[in-house]
Amino acid sequence: MPFEFEGWSNGIDLRKVDSTLLKQKIISYFEAYKKLHDQKNESSKSKEHFDQLLREGTSEYWNKKEIKRVYDEMVYSVSLENKEFQPLKNYELAFFGDGKIATLKHSSHLDVDSRLRGQSALYFLFNNKSRARFLGVYLYMDKDNYTGKDEDIQLEMIK
């Protein structure tokens, strides 16, 4: 029996939001997300992702072993020592799902470092700066909570 989740499909079309304001909202969300990693608070990050993980696992019929593997990967990401978040720069606003999902990604242009092209703008270096972890954070705004004023937009991770 397939599962259906309403999730981000109930979101507003973020392409209609002032792009400068939307970028500011995404950057604010990224900053809060970085704090979860900086605090090394595994339970906070796990709670942030639990609903997303549950929906993904349910829709893909994961078994307990797969759920544990993905959960352990999330915990590992939070608990890494000496993470160095990189500045948000050289990014572009990217939309998905008919404009209902937005994030910031590195440009895909040839003048961008090929290791960054198309990757999430939110990432950190670790292991003596020899490795990078890109945090794919995709955001939306539930239309049921939208007041019609762009400045009131409260982005949340896709469901």
Kindly describe this structure.
The protein is an alpha+beta fold and 159 residues long. It has one domain (10-157). It is built from three helices and seven strands, in the order αααβββββββ. The protein has helices at residues 19-38, 42-59, 64-79, and strands at residues 84-85, 91-96, 101-106, 123-126, 131-134, 139-140, 156-157. The strands form three sheets. The protein has a three-stranded antiparallel beta sheet with strand order 1-4-5, with no helix packed on it. Helix 2 (42-59) runs antiparallel to helix 3. The longest helix is centred in the N-terminal third of the chain and has 20 residues, at 19-38. It is globular, with a radius of gyration of 16 Å. The chain starts with 18 loop residues before the first helix and ends with a strand.
Helix and strand string, N-terminal first?
A: HHHEEEEEEE
Total number of β-strand segments? 7
Helical stretch count?
3
Radius of gyration: 16 Å
Average pLDDT taken over every residue: 84
Placed side by side, the strands forming the largest sheet appear as 1-4-5
- List segments where confidence is low: pLDDT < 50 over at least 5 consecutive residues: none
Percent of residues in β-strands? 15-25%
Distance between the termini: 20 Å
Q: Domains counted in the coordinates: how many?
A: 1
Strand count, sense and barrel status of the largest sheet are:
3 strands, antiparallel
Q: Specify the helix fraction band.
A: 25-40%
Overall 3D form: globular
Structural class: alpha+beta
